[in-house]
């Protein structure tokens, strides 16, 4: 069956890529991904997250999902198909698969094979290497004096080798005690009688330390002088603490020399200047933490005991939380930027509409002003034309009246002449 795994992207890697400003998977030729040790560390980290229950594997309908393939449409595997999916990616070529992608799937296959909650489902699966047997089957196998193949903790597709039958199992060797250090990293400085604790600073001035704390003890506890040298919490601080310890150890001024120093006097003299008191130094460990001295009380109050693995896990968890916090911040910033872009687009749209309305108002105003000027010009021309017509008409009327007046004068003169002739004829007749 086709499980469609070619374009998978690890969610942890995606968050780190977003925090670094990258848009996709990291380059295949990265030195960290090619480093098998780093890949193994990432596998252990992912396995720890799975065991702590941070990832959901079971679906409500009884099927299973791959927590490291969140973008896949298929999230309803049967357990056998899910193991084939995890094993297939876990053993794929590094040229084809991302190193962290292979690591998380190997961790997932290892978790499914070793977690007791999958015993019943694994009991009915055949053809899957490293599947554990249910409790009843294990009991029956022990009764027959045989042993089943061990779990394939690497999550690979190679079958576990068969174990030869034996009537009595060999006793396991006792677990080796893991050395515990005081964390945050500190070193202890010690000197004998007559040494001023304030002078410890000049003895360790050449080292890269964060803080030096002189300790003052009661007279009942003795006359020795002690000081605590603090370093940074990272691996650089641990390296600086080891450098200080090695410096004193090479000069035979370590913890063993402090406890086996000459009992003839509390203030052992040095080989340098006259009256110089020897100062001893070492990195604080479990014995110093549990001591009943002023050093032990200070360490129990201000520090903890941790193994190197504990500190590594703590740094890994902090890195994961930092990556998750950065991814969350980036997501919040992206949402904020999207919101700002939406508001900007709305504002630009409103401004464009206002500009269009303003442009239309100006055009309407200019058109109306042009119409007013045109009508005013036409009215003025019409008035001038009417005045001219009236003037011409008046002039014509005046000439006409003058002509009639002359005609009347002429007729009046003719009437007067006719009247005179008529009177002359009347006189002649009479």
Automatic annotation (TrEMBL):
<dbReference type="InterPro" id="IPR045177">
    <property type="entry name" value="FDM1-5/IDN2"/>
</dbReference>
<feature type="region of interest" description="Disordered">
    <location>
        <begin position="409"/>
        <end position="430"/>
    </location>
</feature>
<keyword id="KW-0943">RNA-mediated gene silencing</keyword>
<feature type="domain" description="XS">
    <location>
        <begin position="179"/>
        <end position="290"/>
    </location>
</feature>
<dbReference type="Pfam" id="PF03470">
    <property type="entry name" value="zf-XS"/>
</dbReference>
<feature type="domain" description="Zinc finger-XS">
    <location>
        <begin position="66"/>
        <end position="109"/>
    </location>
</feature>
<dbReference type="GO" id="GO:0080188">
    <property type="term" value="P:gene silencing by siRNA-directed DNA methylation"/>
</dbReference>
<feature type="region of interest" description="Disordered">
    <location>
        <begin position="1"/>
        <end position="61"/>
    </location>
</feature>
<dbReference type="InterPro" id="IPR038588">
    <property type="entry name" value="XS_domain_sf"/>
</dbReference>
<dbReference type="InterPro" id="IPR005381">
    <property type="entry name" value="Znf-XS_domain"/>
</dbReference>
<keyword id="KW-0175">Coiled coil</keyword>
<feature type="compositionally biased region" description="Acidic residues">
    <location>
        <begin position="1"/>
        <end position="17"/>
    </location>
</feature>
<dbReference type="InterPro" id="IPR005380">
    <property type="entry name" value="XS_domain"/>
</dbReference>
<protein>
    <submittedName>
        <fullName>Uncharacterized protein</fullName>
    </submittedName>
</protein>
<feature type="compositionally biased region" description="Acidic residues">
    <location>
        <begin position="29"/>
        <end position="42"/>
    </location>
</feature>
<dbReference type="Pfam" id="PF03468">
    <property type="entry name" value="XS"/>
</dbReference>
């Amino acid at each position: 069956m086709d499980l469609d795994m070619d374009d998978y992207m690890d969610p942890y890697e995606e968050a780190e890529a977003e925090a670094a400003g990258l848009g996709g998977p990291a380059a295949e030729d990265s030195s960290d991904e090619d480093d098998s040790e780093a890949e193994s560390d990432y596998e252990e980290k992912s396995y720890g997250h799975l065991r702590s229950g941070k990832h959901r594997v079971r679906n409500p309908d009884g099927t299973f999902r791959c927590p490291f393939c969140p973008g896949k449409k298929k999230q309803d595997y049967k357990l056998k198909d899910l193991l084939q999916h995890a094993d297939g990616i876990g053993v794929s070529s590094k040229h084809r698969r991302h190193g962290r992608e292979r690591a998380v799937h190997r961790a997932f296959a290892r978790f499914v094979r070793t977690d007791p909650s999958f015993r019943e489902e694994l009991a009915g699966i055949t053809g899957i290497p490293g599947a554990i047997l249910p409790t009843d089957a294990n009991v029956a196998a022990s009764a027959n004096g045989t042993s089943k193949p061990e779990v394939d903790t690497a999550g690979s597709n190679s079958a576990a080798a068969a174990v030869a039958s034996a009537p009595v199992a060999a006793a396991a060797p006792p677990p080796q005690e893991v050395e515990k250090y005081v964390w945050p990293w500190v070193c202890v400085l010690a000197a004998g009688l007559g040494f001023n604790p304030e002078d410890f600073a000049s003895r360790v001035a050449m080292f890269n330390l964060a803080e030096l704390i002189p300790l003052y003890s009661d007279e009942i506890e003795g006359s020795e002088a002690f000081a605590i040298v603090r370093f940074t919490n990272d691996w650089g601080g641990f390296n600086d603490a080891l450098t200080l310890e090695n410096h004193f150890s090479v000069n035979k001024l370590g913890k063993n020399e402090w406890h086996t120093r000459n009992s003839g006097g509390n203030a052992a003299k040095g080989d340098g200047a006259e009256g110089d008191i020897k100062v001893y130094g070492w990195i604080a460990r479990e014995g110093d933490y549990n001591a009943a001295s002023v050093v032990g009380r200070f360490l129990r109050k201000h520090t903890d005991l941790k193994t190197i693995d504990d500190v590594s896990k703590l740094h890994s968890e902090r890195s994961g939380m930092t990556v998750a916090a950065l991814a969350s911040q980036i997501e919040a910033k992206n949402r904020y930027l999207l919101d700002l872009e939406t508001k900007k687009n709305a504002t630009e749209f409103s401004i464009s509409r206002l500009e269009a309305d303003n442009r239309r108002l100006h055009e309407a105003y200019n058109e109306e002003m042009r119409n007013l000027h045109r009508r005013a010009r036409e009215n003025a021309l019409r008035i001038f034309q009417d005045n001219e017509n009236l003037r011409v008409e008046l002039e014509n009327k005046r000439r006409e009246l003058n002509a009639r007046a002359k005609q009347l004068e002429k007729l009046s003169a003719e009437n007067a002449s006719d009247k005179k002739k008529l009177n002359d004829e009347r006189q002649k007749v009479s």
